[in-house]
Amino acid sequence: MNDSCNISTSKSNVKEPIELELQRIEEDCVHSGKAQFNAGARWACYHYWLGIPSVVLSALAGAAFLKNHADIAAGLSTFAAVFMIANSLYEKAIQIYRDVPRKMRAAHRVEERVVELRALQTQTGEQTLTEMGVIRSPGVDITELIEQARKVTACKEPIEALHSLANIHPGEQVDRLRDNVIERIQQFPLQWIFASTTYSRDGRVIAKRPAMNMLGAELSESNERTIQASMIRDYGMFLGITVQSAILPALEVLRQEHRLREADFVELSRHSPIVPNGRAMLFGKALFSGYDGDFVTALHLLVPQIEHMVRTHLKQTGALTTTLDAEGIETENGLSTLMALPETEDVFGKDLVFEFKALFCDPFGHNLRNELAHGLLDDGDCRSAASIYAWWLSLKLVFNTWWNTRAASVQDEEKVDKEGEGESHA
C-alpha cells in the first residue's frame, strides 16, 4: 500500500471508477444502499486508503436492500435463502471493518458501524431460521431393541440390574465413526465439496464446517475438521436411538422393580475411584436425580463435576491444567482446553474423549457444558436425549470403575485364601 502522500496524489485516479462502481451497486439494489454511499469522494478515499476490497461495498449495499425492502426479501425467501445471504454479507462487512487500523477507526465511525451491523446480523440470523426446512427420513422400528433392553434388566438383584443398565450400550467407537464418514466421502464426494454453517436456535452462527479438498492425497487440517464435524453429527443421531431404544427402557424396568435411595448412589460414588475426593455427595445426588427422572437437576449437578473429575485425573498424571498470564495470575482451564491436552487420551482413552467433546464442549455437538454455563438450556434441553445420555454415561463411568475395583479386590482375596490354604497343607 502507498503512503499517505501517494494516496492524496493518486486519489483522483481511482475516484472515478469507484464512484461508477458505487453507482452500479446502488442501481442493482434499487437505490436502497444510497444512504450508505452518499459521499462518493469520501468512500473513494476510504476504500483506497484502507485497502478495503470492493466486497464491503457490495455487502453493505446488498444488506441495505434487504433491510429497507423487508417485504420483497420475505417474498424472495420463498425461493432462495435471502436472509442467510444477508447474514453472510453483514458478517463479511464486520470482518472488513475490524481490519481497519485502530488509529483510523474513530475518524470513520468504525465502532458505531460495527455495532449497527451486529444488530442487523442478529436480526437476519433469526430470520434465517424461517428459511430452513425440516428433512425427514423414514422411521426406524426399535420395538425389538426396546424389548431386548427390558429383558436384560428385568428380574435381577438391584446391583445386577444396575450393572445391566450401566452396560446396556458399549459406548461409541471413534474409529468406527471415522471409517463410516470416510467411506461416505468416497462414495458421495459431491456433497462434501461445499462448506456448511451451523446456526443456534436464536440464529447465531456457532460453527462452520469447511469444504473437503478432494485433490490432495493426504488429509489436510481443514479436511480433518470436516471429518470430525461429520463424526459428531453421526454421533448425535446414534445417541438419540440409543437413548430411546436402550437406556430409557432399561431405566424404566430398574425403577419399577427396585426402589433405590439417594444414599445408595452416594455410597456408590464414594467407593468409585473415578470420583474425586469430596465429590461423592454431588455425584450421588446427580445420579439419583437421573434415576428418579429428574434430568434437569442431574444435568446441572453433573456437568461441572465431570469437568472437575477430568481436571483432577489430568493433574494426577502431571498434566498442566492452568494458564498463567503476564501478571502472574493462574486460572483453571475450561473443559474444551482440557480435552485438547495430549495427556487426556492417555488417561481416558480416545473413545471417551470423543464422547466428552461431542457431548459437552464442541459447537458441532450438543455443547452441554458451554450451553449450561451461559444459561442457554431450557427445560426441554435438560430432558433431551443428549442430557439423558450424559447422565447415563456418568453412571457408566462411576459404576464400572467401582465394579472393576470390587472384582479385582475379590480376586485378590481369593488369591490370598488359596495361598493360605497351601501353606497350611504344607
In short:
The protein is mostly helical and 426 residues long. 67% of the residues lie in helices and 4% in strands.
Describe the protein.
Residues 306-396 form the DUF4209 domain. The chain crosses the membrane at residues 46-66. Keywords: Membrane, Transmembrane, Transmembrane helix. It holds the Pfam family DUF4209. InterPro entries: DUF4209 (IPR025209). The protein is mainly alpha-helical. It has 2 domains: 4-131, no CATH class; 143-413, no CATH class. It has helices spanning 4-28, 40-49, 55-68, 70-76, 82-98, 110-131, 143-153, 158-166, 174-187, 221-257, 262-270, 280-291, 295-316, 335-339, 342-348, 350-361, 368-373, 379-382, 385-425, and strands spanning 196-199, 205-209, 322-324, 330-332. A hairpin with a 5-residue loop joins β3 (322-324) and β4. α5 runs antiparallel to α6, α10 (221-257) crosses α19 (385-425) and α11 packs across α12 (280-291). The chain starts with a helix and ends with a helix. Mean pLDDT is 79; it is low at 1-15 and 25-55.
